[in-house]
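Appendix B, Record 12. Input sequence as logged:
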Amino acid sequence: MSDRLAWERDGADWPNRAASAFVEASGLRWHVQRMGSGPVALLLHGTGASTHSWRDLAPLLASRFSVIAPDLPGHAFTETPPFQRMTLPGMAADIRALMQVLDAQPAVAVGHSAGAAILARMSLDGALAARTLISLNGALLPFGGVPGRLFSPLARLLATSSLAPRLFAWRAGDRAVVERLIRDTGSRLDPLGADLYARLARNPPHVAAALAMMANWDLDALARELPRLAPALVLVTGSNDHTIPSASAYRVHALLPASKVVRLSGLGHLAHEEQPRQIADLVTDAAQATGLPL
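Logged structural output:
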């Protein structure tokens, strides 16, 4: 699809635009935001989101960390790799290549939803040596039951259709549809947050990339390997998350008893957008708990 978001037009008022740059790595042109000084904190957003989801959290973390936040492959302003590379190992390898080009060695890694799975995969593959991995409502385990058996085949069917992303983008032209999708996550966002998600959802290539991720990912393999995850793992879960229920965090904790579960009362799947100050404090505390000087 050629009608990608254009930085000059669609990014003219992008949050933290002054921190944005474009970087070539792994054959892709990446949109990356960098700010602050100190130990490197890598922030990876979830499926269907972008750097905008860190709009309030990143500047708070920048008072103590050198923050790096890219748009994932195919999302927002980062180019899309071939469909077969939109796997969990493939995206982990692409992020590793980006970190090498940036000459960055993250000490802290923060991932929301699918972003947490990418960071876990990177760590297991020796591509990330962070002391601390913070999973914000992380999608670290496969869906169970009938939904799990249907999810990937359906996503693959939709992802290989040129019509499905355009149809979804057309439906997202109705602001009420986007607002309902956000409410269904269990979160409540301000109008700017809803506007930015609507902008992304109306873009067919962005939608296609999100579908390609869902179609290609195998979380069963990740779940089998999670017990050997090396970084200190903090599992942050919103009590009102309707996308990744809190029970998932406790299931991961059972696999990794040394991990820590932090349950946030009243917050949903987009907790870091609802309460960025609370998450910033949590990230700082978790980093300091491993002896990282801040």
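Residues 145-151 have pLDDT under 50 and may be disordered.
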